[in-house]
């Protein structure tokens, strides 16, 4: 009973964090930019009319609200115990993916925004730093070492658990799955460190800060994914599979907390967006 | 140390890169042994084709202003300060001017000089 109540509270927290708290924080941040860095003074910040971005923000926010209503419907389904607890994991996962939809929409919009910025750019002057970027400029050896250590501990766990021949256990495919995930995270970090500059106006310091944040996020996500899968295996081995939906929800919230981190707006150099594009 | 290029300038981009790296070496902003970004990194940062940066690096390496140490990357050459003062392009032009002056003195027409120069460059006389 107490466990059920705890699970409901954690699930409600998932709904609140992913569909209200973080989207609201993001909305406030974007509105702050609209109000304090208007198009007439910061033309490079708006490759398309401001109204387009205001409409986009409205769509993002309302999609979150819509998803929150659906998620609350799922919550009622959980509380009413219609599915008798067996579908709890499916409900948590489905809710997460629905809540993730606005985030995906936002990612696509950001890519389009940078593309429009590149298209609008008429300046022919470009600059770069004559220093090589190295991995440890962006992440501490300690954090990277911790991520690697956790990965190898996970491999050891899989090899150990594999001896017992549990029917539910996926065996070495777990290692493959986690390795592929980590390679994906590493590729994202690499792309941010050495890839093409998305925002053509962004100052060097801002780019470095942004990259540091992304690389750290990838390390934390890698740690979270590896720990979650390990924890899940341990729960199953000890016959505590009924606790999985609760920990899954905590895991999703952890992912959201990591993913929604952003460079403080006060530390962004908006002066670079001030200059009128020079025609050549 | 920042490098600034202008893609609208009449000076080719690779020449702008070469000139700025040499100037940075001469001013002491880039000391011998300093590491330089990889071709891909610099090309991405300047939003250029990697071949353009590769061409600049190749010519700087030929002039011993930079050196590539395998997988460790590209570095400023120990003799870069001396070597940055040598402008091979200016040297070629001054040599050609001397030769052309001599030809003209001997009565060779400009048209004949151009054709002969083209033939020599294309190895037609071999």
What does this structure look like?
- The complex is a heterodimer of chains A (280) and B (126).
- Chain A has seven helices and one strand.
- Chain A is mainly α and 280 residues long.
- Chain A has one domain (2-273).
- The longest helix of chain A has 35 residues, at 2-36.
- Chain A is flat and about 65 Å long.
- In chain B, helix 1 crosses helix 3 (50-62) and helix 2 (39-46) packs across helix 3.
- The radius of gyration of chain B is 18 Å and the shape is elongated.
- Chains A and B meet through strand 1 of A and strand 1, strand 2 and helix 2 of B.
Estimate nothing, just give the exact number of structural domains of chain A: 1
Shape of chain A: flat
> Which chain pair has the greatest contact?
A-B, 17 and 25 residues
Percentage of residues assigned to helices of chain B: 55-70%
Question: CATH topology of the largest domain in chain B, anyone?
Answer: Arc Repressor Mutant, subunit A
Main β-sheet description of chain B: 3 strands, antiparallel
Largest sheet of chain A: none
Mean pLDDT of chain A: 90
- The number of helical elements of chain A comes to 7
Shape of chain B: elongated
Tell me the helix content of chain A: 55-70%
Poorly predicted runs of chain A: none
Low-confidence stretches of chain B: none
CATH superfamily of the largest domain in chain B: Winged helix-like DNA-binding domain superfamily/Winged helix DNA-binding domain
- Percentage beta strand of chain A: under 5%
Rounded Rg of chain A: 22 Å
Beta strand % of chain B:
5-15%
Q: Rg of chain B from C-alpha positions?
A: 18 Å
Quaternary structure: heterodimer
Number of strands of chain B: 4
Based on secondary structure, the structural category of chain B is mainly alpha
């Amino acid at each position: 009973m107490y466990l059920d109540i705890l699970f409901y509270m954690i699930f409600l927290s998932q709904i609140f964090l992913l569909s209200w708290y973080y989207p609201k924080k993001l909305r406030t941040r974007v509105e702050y930019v609209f109000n304090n860095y208007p198009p007439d003074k910061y033309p490079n910040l708006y490759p398309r009319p401001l109204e387009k971005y205001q409409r986009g923000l409205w769509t993002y926010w309302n999609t979150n609200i819509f998803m929150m209503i659906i998620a609350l419907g799922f919550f009622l389904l959980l509380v009413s115990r219609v599915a008798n607890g067996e579908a709890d994991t499916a409900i948590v996962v489905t809710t997460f993916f629905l809540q993730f939809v606005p985030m995906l929409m936002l990612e696509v919009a950001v890519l389009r925004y940078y593309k429009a910025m590149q298209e609008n750019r008429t300046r022919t002057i470009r600059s770069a730093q004559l220093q090589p970027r190295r991995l440890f400029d962006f992440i501490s050896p300690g954090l990277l070492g911790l991520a690697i250590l956790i990965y190898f501990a996970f491999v050891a766990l899989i090899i150990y658990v594999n001896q017992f021949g549990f029917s539910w256990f996926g065996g070495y495919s777990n290692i493959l799955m986690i390795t592929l995930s980590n390679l994906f995270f590493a590729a994202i970090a690499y792309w941010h460190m050495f890839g093409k500059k998305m925002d053509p106006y962004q100052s060097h310091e801002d780019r470095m800060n942004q990259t540091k944040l992304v690389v750290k996020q990838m390390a934390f996500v890698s740690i979270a994914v590896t720990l979650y899968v390990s924890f899940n295996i341990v729960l199953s081995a000890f016959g505590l599979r009924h606790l999985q939906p609760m920990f899954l929800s905590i895991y999703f919230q952890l992912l959201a907390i990591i993913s929604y981190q952003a460079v403080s707006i006060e530390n962004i150099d908006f002066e670079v967006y001030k200059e009128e594009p020079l025609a050549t | 140390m920042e490098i600034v290029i202008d893609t609208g300038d009449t000076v080719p981009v690779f020449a702008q890169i070469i000139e700025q790296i040499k100037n940075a070496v001469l001013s002491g902003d880039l000391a011998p042994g300093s590491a330089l970004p990889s071709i891909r990194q610099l090309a991405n940062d300047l939003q250029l084709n990697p071949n353009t940066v590769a061409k600049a690096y190749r010519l700087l390496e030929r002039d011993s202003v930079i050196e590539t140490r395998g997988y460790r990357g590209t570095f400023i050459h120990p003799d870069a300060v001396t070597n940055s003062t040598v402008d091979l392009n200016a040297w070629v032009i001054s040599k050609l001017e001397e030769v052309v002056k001599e030809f003209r003195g001997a009565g060779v027409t400009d048209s004949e000089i151009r054709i002969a120069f083209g033939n020599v460059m294309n190895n037609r006389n071999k």
